Amino acid sequence: MGAVPACFCPVHNQREYHKDVLTLFGDAPSKGGAAVEQLDKPLRRQERRRPERRALFLAQISRSLNDSLDYEQTLDRIARLAMPELGAWCMVDLLEPNGTVRRLEIIHPDPKLQKLVRELEQRYPPQRDDALGAPRLLETQQPELVPEVSDELLEREARDARHLEILRALRIGSYMVVPLKRRGKLLGTLTFVSADNGLRYAPRDLLFAEDLADRAAVAMDNARLYREAENSRQEAIAALAHAAESDRAKADFLSVMSHELHTPLNAIGGYAELLELGMRGPITDQQREAINRIKQSQQQLLAVVNDILTFSRTEHGRLSVRRENVNVNDALEAVRFIAEPLIRANDLTYEFRPSVPPAIAVADRERMQHIVVNLLSNAVKFSPHGSPIVIECAQRGKVVEIKVIDVGSGIPAEKHELIFQPFTQASTGFTRTAGGSGLGLAISRDLARLMGGDVTVESEPGRGSTFTLSLPVASDASTAL
Ligand code: ADP
């Protein structure tokens, strides 16, 4: 490779740039280096109109750049549009993230020469150590103008005889390379080569090409940002779909497992009862005691399995609730029968305060009772011996509130939300002694919300807890009675 020829590399600040554009646009023409006055009339008119024409061209380019997010297509369009304006053939080189140069397009206005251009592209692609053109600009990052491409220059730059032959046949007059640069980052280059060796590029042509490249770089950057945002969006959608898919698989697994566990658990309960009733022969007191333990453990395990099943159904929208008018006092009276053995076993007192007049809620009676039993068994679990547990029912406006009140251990404020998360307990240590799956409150809240209500908590450590189940009041209460 020979020495770098004399080239024009304007280094200017923004203000100077605009000054240059104005003066240079009114400057001498580039055809053969002749002054405007020396040109014949139509050509002179054309030359004088050049600034307006170029301003219009840039405005059109900007519009079409803003319209498109496919910047490769846009660059191709720019190259084609610039051809008549700059009397040029145009090459677009893109800098790949791995530092290599990818030639996007090489367009020649003369179809006869397009074949040679292709050969040039295929046999002599740009090389990093080329003294001219895009590779050099990748190093300097400065625009480059070679006003006069002499035969000596071609000889110096040609890699072999065929290369020189092609370069000569292309009748190159002058050429310029401008960076596609955005936010200080080089994205590629645009090269304009005059397709007529009588045509010389002037500095104003370089400024015009730079302006064009700046606009193209903005479009490329926008397209890149858009693509990145789009990729992230697609990734998020895929992750969500994946999560939904694995959620479904988990729900299916839980549901199959729960069903599978039900059968042997029921068998354990049934056979324990047969033994207890003496149907397999007389039993001793010690054996009765052991059978009772088996039954209790079976009940606990069954409750956990049922919780998991209900939870997976509510979480995946597979649980339906009935919406009927329910006399809340009546439904809570029924809960007392479930509560009493629990209360007695733990040496607690129980008080039920019904609503006056009786409140009618729109709810699924069984689900409502399920929630209250959950809250009640928690109150029992976390209350010291001898303490009271109260269930209070009242209508407040359009809501029926059922409160389960205890004076037990209480829950610190920062855990009030956490305890409604599945498999979460306020204190591991404490719950270990109390037992439980950490699903009761999650299920209760899910069920309440399915019925258009909610479960909330007020609690203070050492002072006890009040859990409130709220449900919508029936609009026509009389129909329920
Ligand atoms: P678990 O089956 O573990 O009781 P829950 O979802 O019903 O699961 O409750 C979650 C946690 O909330 C409990 O482990 C406990 O730490 C806390 N909690 C619930 N109810 C009470 C209560 N009445 N008093 C104190 N802590 C409670």
Reconstruct the topology from this structure.
Elements: H1 14-25, H2 41-48, H3 50-67, H4 71-86, E1 88-95, E2 101-107, H5 111-123, H6 133-140, E3 144-146, H7 151-157, H8 161-169, E4 175-182, E5 185-194, H9 203-276, H10 285-315, E6 324-327, H11 328-345, E7 349-353, E8 360-363, H12 365-381, E9 388-396, E10 399-406, H13 428-434, H14 440-450, E11 454-460, E12 464-472
Parallel strand pairs: 7-9
Antiparallel strand pairs: 1-2, 1-5, 3-4, 4-5, 6-8, 9-10, 10-12, 11-12
Helix pairs in contact: 1-9, 3-4, 3-9, 4-9, 5-8, 9-10, 10-14, 11-12, 12-14
This protein binds adenosine-5'-diphosphate.
Adenosine-5'-diphosphate binds next to helix 12 and helix 14.
Fold and architecture overview:
There is one protein chain. 52% of the residues lie in helices and 17% in strands. The chain has 481 residues and is of the alpha+beta class. The termini are far apart. The site of adenosine-5'-diphosphate has 20 residues, from helix 12 and helix 14. Adenosine-5'-diphosphate (ADP) binds at residues 378-379, 382, 406, 408-409, 411, 419, 425-427, 431, 436-442, 465.
Features:
single chain; about 475 residues; alpha+beta; five-stranded mixed beta sheet; 14 helices; 12 strands; about 50% helix; disordered N terminus; binds adenosine-5'-diphosphate
Number of beta-strand segments: 12
Ligands and ions found: adenosine-5'-diphosphate
> How far from one another are the termini?
102 Å
- Give the rounded overall mean pLDDT: 80
Order of helices and strands: HHHHEEHHEHHEEHHEHEEHEEHHEE
Shape descriptor: elongated
Radius of gyration: 42 Å
Biggest pleated sheet = 5 strands, antiparallel
Helix content: 40-55%
What is the SS-derived class? Answer: alpha+beta
Strand order of the largest sheet: 2-1-5-4-3
Count of DSSP helices?
Answer: 14
In the predicted model, the low-confidence regions spanning at least 5 consecutive residues are 1-39, 428-433
Strand content: 15-25%
